[in-house]
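Progress against Task 2.4 (sequence-to-structure conversion) is shown through the following example record, which the project officer requested during the mid-term review.
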Amino acid sequence: MKILVLGGGGREHTICYVLSKSVKLEKLFCIPGNGGISEIADIVDSISPTDFKSIARFCKENQIDLVIPGPEEPLVKGLRDSLEKEGIKVFGPDKIGALIEGSKSFAKEIISKAGVPTAKFEVFDDPSKAKAYIEKKGAPIVVKADGLCAGKGVFVCEKKEDAINAIEKIMEEKIFGESGNKVVIEEKLVGEEASYIVITDGYSFKALPTSQDHKRLLDNDEGPNT
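Structure tokens generated for the chain above:
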């Protein structure tokens, strides 16, 4: 198979490394890639992972069998929808499916309707109302920017003042741009966190091993998310 991986971080490096070990692999490309990835794949740093027209053209010119996106942003912007119209297979959800990752409020809505247990939450698009809610609920509390923030949009606040500050940064200072137009404010859950990922085509599914994401910058679960 000829495979194209989209992205240029550690995640994509790992994906490329594993793919490079497959006996089914004929050729491996990565857009835009990085120095490490260049040792195991042909990188193309002249194309953006969100330039769908250029990606489609590249796939046709190089007879790509499968595109594997690493970042969430291309999927949220409709990568699969765009490439599938050109007859190119993509490993990942369509634009609507990707919205579960692209909007925390949408994900919470889907989770709630499906009856999946989740932390109690409220959604706000007005910073003054969000602050008033925090004043009422107190801390500890969790503040989340609604959209994609490269994994940095969640603030676990032990003090009420920290939560208010998070609202100001997200909704007023716009440190995440339009991704901070809305926030999800949740109760803080205490315990071990684990990720359980299942791959599905809508008909069958394959469960992957559980994993644990250590996102905080400092030891002992302290510092901002990275």
